[in-house]
Amino acid sequence: MTFLTRNPQKNAQTQRKKNRSVLAAAVIAIAVGLGAVTSIAFLPQAAHAQSASKITPDMINKIESYLGDMTTLRADFVQISSDGGAAEGKLYMERPGKMRFEYNPPAQILLVSTGHDFIYYDKEINAPTYFDIDETPAGIILAENVSLTDKVKIADYSRTAKTVRVELVRKSDPGAGSVTLVFAEAPMQLRQWIVTDPTGIETTVTLFNTEEGVSLDPELFKFERIWPDKGN
Asked: What is the model's pTM?
């Protein structure tokens, strides 16, 4: 039976650790993973999809121009993982190079791109992990000069009356997997991305209530580790 336990406190601690590890896996998938494309939740599925070979230069330019012209973005997000993990929160982005995921409680996770480092921070255990922005899927969006053909290539492309989906793989290691960006087209707006990590966990991040070109506090993109007061 999973409903009863002789040690509720121990059971709660075990559950918190499990929840933290699940969320960490999903967050790290967003930060560093490039995996196979997965299905899209919350958005219409592709109908009459066009192959990657049929994506037009005009569409490539349209996506690159949209991302390149984006200055700031603020949105609510929902994050779903194929292993059952789920979380939500607020996303802030300032191009180039800066991004912040604030997860709602009870999650104790913060994800910040400062312009130089991409940092995964577990508040509960006070443990930051640093990544190179260029090694993350976010680096594609946050690059000063956005390109879908430079360090990455288009592996798949589909378009419906309302959405555009572009699957990208790294030229240096196409077998490592992919990240798929999903846009609403009229007007063009980033709506979703999907990452699958090397273990096969698929993580879908969907944006809601998106605002672009808004004023954001520079402090959002700074990171300072909290150290305990040794005097206490």
From this structure: 0.75
